[in-house]
Design goal:
5-stranded parallel β-sheet, about 25% strand
Length: about 375
């Protein structure tokens, strides 16, 4: 099988799918990326990511993009602070400016870096996939606009609610018990210098009483805050808070953090944008499946986990890079694509399961009644 007659469909234009497409194209293997969004600026892309040396950076190196990444990343973003609800700093880490172990980059910047590396037309925007069905020896991808396209290989890089996953597995994401309320603070250095000092150059975790105020410095003098709560899955719909009404959402959210230090509550008060609730989900682990010809999964579609591992995007990109190498090698050599997928899955599945287990432990000790004691113990510090 050669590059001319192997139709590879990548569902999802996030970090994993775009990394896969980039690596394939480096080896002269074409593919099509189906993305539901209309463009890279169709919605906010999320917060900042640390790209670790042995995962995210390894993927970027394989994709030939490591130098470009390092030129726009923020090594100072590796700084971190752990506080309790009184505002007492329990642990602080200040990174060496020359340390490139896990520099930070905004999600939007990372996605743009990957998109700009692809051949024009690789990503088909406005492609809302509704169903994938068998079509002879391949598959047919049915879109919301009524059109469909055929593919020999279908790769699910389409996140938590993947449309590809049901072809392989009956597993579904489960609620972790924690919901984030996302808060945005602009122009912090000029308008909120006290919060700029509180958060620092990297991230700040204030943890106590089954709750957390987690803040991360983004580029452009922006701070993104996540108010973490252990609440029922339907809390955002049933709690009675209008998250778009700043005049009511601020005091309502402050009530959940009654007794917390004033400087921490200021993170809630400073936002002038809509508050966004996000329930956190994770797939059961280990997530494995029987082999099926011409289909596999990447990233969150394969091993969705809570953000408390810090590995989700890193592993997603590593998945894409490794699968890209396996597929390109098989196609160029005329050997079995299914064997190439099997080799990829044999490495990816246990690696994803280990990270997902760590993420489950991470959220359990971070958003806990005795927090931050569990986090301090995990980090080898005396309480």
């Amino acid at each position: 099988m050669n590059t001319q007659n192997t139709r590879i469909a990548v569902l999802g234009g996030g970090p994993s799918g775009l990394t896969l497409a980039r690596v394939l194209q480096q080896h002269d293997v074409s593919c099509t990326v189906y993305e539901r969004e209309g463009s890279v600026v169709a919605r906010p892309q999320g917060g900042t990511l640390d790209m670790k040396t042995d995962t995210g950076q390894a993927a970027l190196r394989t994709a030939g993009l490591l130098e470009k990444f390092l030129a726009i990343s923020r090594p100072e973003g590796q700084d971190g602070r752990l506080l309790d609800k009184t505002g007492t700093v329990r642990l602080e880490h200040q990174a060496d400016p020359d340390d490139l172990d896990q520099p930070e980059i905004d999600r939007g910047q990372l996605r743009t870096l990957l998109l700009d590396s692809l051949e024009p037309g690789t990503v088909r925007w406005h492609s809302d996939v509704r169903e994938i069905t068998e079509d002879g020896a391949g598959y047919r991808i049915h879109l919301a606009d009524g059109t469909s396209n055929r593919a020999d290989v279908v790769i699910g890089a389409d996140g938590a609610w993947s449309k590809v996953r049901p072809l392989l597995s009956s597993a579904k994401p489960e609620y972790t018990g924690v919901t984030f309320v996302e808060i945005h603070i602009d122009d912090v250095d000029e308008r909120h210098p006290d919060l700029a000092v509180l958060v620092g150059n990297g991230s700040m975790h204030a943890l106590s009483d089954n709750k957390g105020l987690i803040a991360q410095r983004n580029s452009g003098s922006h701070i993104r805050v996540y108010a973490a709560l252990r609440v029922p899955e339907d809390w955002a719909r049933t709690c009675g808070i209008d998250f778009a009404d700043l005049a009511t959402v601020r005091p309502a959210l402050r009530e959940y953090f009654a007794g917390w230090a004033r400087q921490l509550l200021a993170l809630i008060d400073a936002s002038e944008k809509e508050f966004v609730p996000r329930a956190l989900y994770a797939l059961p682990f280990p997530h494995t499946w029987p082999a099926r010809p011409g289909v596999t999964l990447l990233g969150d579609a394969a091993h969705l986990m809570s953000p408390f591992s810090g590995l989700g995007a890193n592993l997603a990109m590593l998945d894409g890079a490794e699968l890209g190498i396996e597929l390109a090698t098989a196609i160029k050599a005329g050997t079995s694509i299914d064997d190439a997928i099997a080799r990829y899955e044999a490495v990816m599945q246990p690696r994803g399961a280990e990270a997902a287990e760590g993420a489950a432990h991470g959220i359990d000790i971070a958003i806990a009644p005795d927090a931050p004691l569990g986090a301090l113990k995990f980090l080898g510090q005396d309480a």
